[in-house]
Write a structure and sequence with these properties.
Number of domains: 4
Structural class: alpha+beta
Number of helices: 18
CATH class of the largest domain: Mainly Alpha
Strand content: 15-25%
Shape: elongated
Radius of gyration: 58 Å
CATH superfamily of the largest domain: Rhodopsin 7-helix transmembrane proteins
Distance between the termini: 134 Å
CATH architecture of the largest domain: Up-down Bundle
Length: 716
């Protein structure tokens, strides 16, 4: 009986061993199974065609993996990777878990071939995280295999990045123990990174050194890169954005590398001691930027390969940069060199794992994270040591400043006596110069007043001559009529006396009439009456013209009034023309007056402006035409844009550009000696400015000039 039972057990064991030997890709699960890595038991198939599962099942091109963690590599073209394995459950528990611990696969299709058919489950980076049956960064499938049953599985993996298949099968408790350990490692790294970021951010706001800012950038994106590689960023940060998740690791790796390069340049002062290395670092930063752009444009394979290649050169280049700084005696570079050496070793292990040279296990998988934690800590020590160095340099600099200040103080004391004496000498010289300057200013003021008085006297003389000439004609007319009027009045008086004698005489009426008729014929009384009326009219006209001239003189002569008054500008122009009427005998005058509102101004001063401009126009016409006819002056007034304008245009000789630019300068004149002091247009310019107005000049040589005075209708 015992022998029979022993024989049966032997046969069962032999059968199981035979089945395991025949099925090379078969995984055996027993009650003692905790967690099995099945990478070496996988059969692999790589195609460039998207085959259906039935075609894959019929394929004879599957090859044994032979590696505990198969590395399927990376291909710029789209590549379809298949893995086949069978699981035989000899345990009493039908539930086992399949764990694919590589979160960077775009799409995973798991097919279970059973007697009832083919069951398909789909997951991957391109699928929103919320759709995963088991919420974990790893791809975890619960496999339900009845006792003493065998199920064959086909797994398809598609990705633009390198594909690793760290696949294990085990019980739930052992699986979660392993996953919790890995999560703890990542959490420790994230904690260290956040502490370093917060601490150095505080230092940056205190010191304002850009090295800290680049260090923070480097550590932040390095942390996001490692967290993204392990899939935690997809789980907690953007679970509903698979498109960004597919690119995020490359993005963060590029930004972290750019931050690391800039941190190395600023911290190690690469630009100061090695221009070539600095340019190479900028070139590498450009490669990372290009990788970022390619990835953003959807060229994930090209972006990853470029990032991977640039990262290798970046990692290898920083070491000699920091070593040179150490050799040059830059003390903080020692921590930098040590930290980057640790990171380089961790990166080398990680890359060798990607290349399949080193096995994929917990150590190689987390080598970069562990090395990064050590590196960011040592880099923080380097920054702290740099603060000490800067503090020591600052103290030394302050000591030097104190010494320099003491020397300066001694020199100041020594020079104070000399300076005091020099100040006394210079003060005496300045007092003498000031006295001379005050005397010169007084003489200049006296000369200026004399010149202004001379200009006023010249204007007064010209005004007197003009008034005398204008008044002379009507006065002469009156004087010429006085003598014949006196004669006619004497005749009338004699007639009146004769009539009184006749009235008192005793002659008869006919005799009286005869005598009156004879005397009337003698003196021609009708002609006498007509002549007297004519003479009175002449005297009235002459006196009227004289009064008109005097009224114009009254309007024009209000030069020294200091009160603003509302006046008619057209009337002021006419009064000015009346003064110079004797100069316009051979000049054609054309007036184009518009209806103007009353202007609040200093009327006499405006009339002086018009007189100065008109005299210059008459002078320019006389230079061109002499005593001949042909000269013309056009005076126009109007209102435009709430400003009143007066335009005086002549056809004289005109002005050259150099003369036009200086026409308002004091004492500038083109007239011959004795023709004026050159103050007329300067005074006119200042008067217009005092009225808040402007004066424009247009002139062409040989054609004439035009002066336009603009005055605001309302004065402030």
């Amino acid at each position: 009986m015992f022998y029979t039972l022993l024989s049966k057990k032997f046969l069962v064991a032999s059968l199981i061993m035979f089945l395991a030997f025949c099925c090379k890709a078969q995984v055996l699960i027993t009650d003692q199974t905790k967690r099995l890595k099945i990478g070496a038991q996988l059969e692999l198939l790589q195609t460039e065609e998207d085959l259906k599962i039935e075609e894959v099942m019929r394929s004879t091109n599957f090859k044994k993996s032979g590696s505990h963690v198969p590395n399927l590599g990376v291909n710029s073209n789209k590549q379809y990777n298949w893995a086949r394995f069978s699981v035989t459950n000899k345990s009493s528990n039908p539930v086992v878990f399949l764990d694919l611990a590589y979160p960077l696969i775009d799409r995973i299709d798991l097919y279970a071939v059973t007697s009832s058919g083919i069951e398909q489950r789909v997951t991957g980076q391109l699928q929103p995280f919320e759709l995963r049956a088991i919420k974990h960064p790893n791809y975890i499938f619960d496999l339900r295999i009845p006792k003493d049953s065998t199920v064959t599985y086909y797994l398809q993996a598609v990705s633009a990045e390198p594909i690793f298949l760290p696949i294990s099968i085990g019980r739930q408790r052992h699986l979660w123990e392993q996953l919790n350990t890995e999560t703890l490692i990542v959490g420790i790294f994230v904690g260290i990174s956040l502490v370093m970021i917060a601490y150095n951010l505080f230092l940056f706001f205190s010191i304002r050194d850009t090295s800290y800012l680049w260090y923070i950038t480097y550590v932040l994106f390095l942390c996001l890169t490692h967290v993204g590689i392990k899939g935690y960023s997809y789980q907690y940060l953007w679970p509903g954005n698979p498109e960004f998740e597919q690119k995020s690791v490359i993005f963060f790796a590029c930004l972290s590398s750019i931050g690391g390069l800039m941190f190395a340049n600023t911290f190690l002062r690469t630009r100061d001691y090695s221009k070539k290395m600095f340019m190479v670092s900028l070139f590498l930063a450009g490669l990372f930027a290009l990788s970022f752009v390619l990835t953003a444009l959807g060229k994930l394979a090209a972006g990853f390969q470029l990032m991977h290649l640039a990262t290798i050169f970046f990692t290898l280049m920083i070491l000699p940069m920091s070593y040179i700084s150490v050799k040059r005696g830059y003390r903080p570079a020692r921590y930098f060199f040590a930290g980057w050496s640790v990171f380089t070793i961790g990166m080398a292990i990680f890359i060798l794992k990607d290349l399949g040279i080193l096995p994929y296990n917990l150590f190689t998988s987390y080598s970069v994270i562990a090395a990064s934690a050590v590196e960011v800590s040592l880099l923080a020590f380097a920054l702290a040591d740099r603060i000490k160095l800067l503090k020591a340099e600052k103290e030394k600099y302050q000591e030097e400043l104190v010494q320099v200040a003491q020397q300066n103080e001694r020199m100041v004391r020594e020079h104070n006596i000399l300076l005091e004496q020099e100040v006394k000498n210079r003060t005496s010289q300045l007092n003498e110069a000031n006295s001379e300057l005050m005397l010169t200013l007084n003489n200049l003021e006296i000369a200026q007043n004399q010149l202004l008085q001379s200009e006023k006297m010249a204007s007064l003389g010209f005004l007197s001559r003009g008034i005398a000439h204008e008044i002379n004609n009507p006065i002469n007319f009156v004087a010429a009529n006085v003598s014949p009027l006196r004669r006619d009045v004497d005749e009338l008086f004699h007639l009146i006396e004769m009539m009184e004698e006749l009235i008192n005489s005793k002659a008869s009426v006919p005799e009286k009439k005869k005598l009156l008729r004879e005397y009337n014929e003698k003196i021609d009384f009708d002609y006498l009456k007509t002549e007297v009326n004519y003479l009175f009219n002449g005297i009235a006209e002459g006196s009227g013209r004289t009064l008109k001239i005097l009224d114009g003189l009254r309007i024009f002569s209000k030069v020294h009034e200091n009160d603003l008054k509302y006046v008619d500008i057209n009337r002021g122009l006419d009064s000015t023309l009346l003064i110079i009427n004797h100069l316009l005998t051979k000049i054609r005058l054309e007036k184009k007056y518009a209806d103007l509102p009353a202007l609040k101004c200093y009327p006499g001063k405006l009339n002086q402006i018009f007189l100065n401009i008109l005299l210059n126009s008459i002078h320019a016409i006389q230079l061109k035409f002499g005593d001949e006819q042909g000269g013309a002056i056009e005076i126009a007034t109007g209102v435009r844009d709430n400003a009143l304008f007066v335009s005086i245009k002549d056809n004289g000789i005109g002005m050259e550009e150099a003369v036009k630019e200086r026409v308002f300068e004091p004492f500038f004149t083109t007239k011959e000696f004795g023709g004026g002091a050159g103050l007329g247009m300067s005074i006119s310019y200042n008067t217009v400015k005092n009225h808040n107005g402007d004066i424009e000049v247009q002139s062409t040589v040989g054609e004439g000039s035009q002066f336009t005075v603009w005055l605001p209708v309302e004065q402030n």
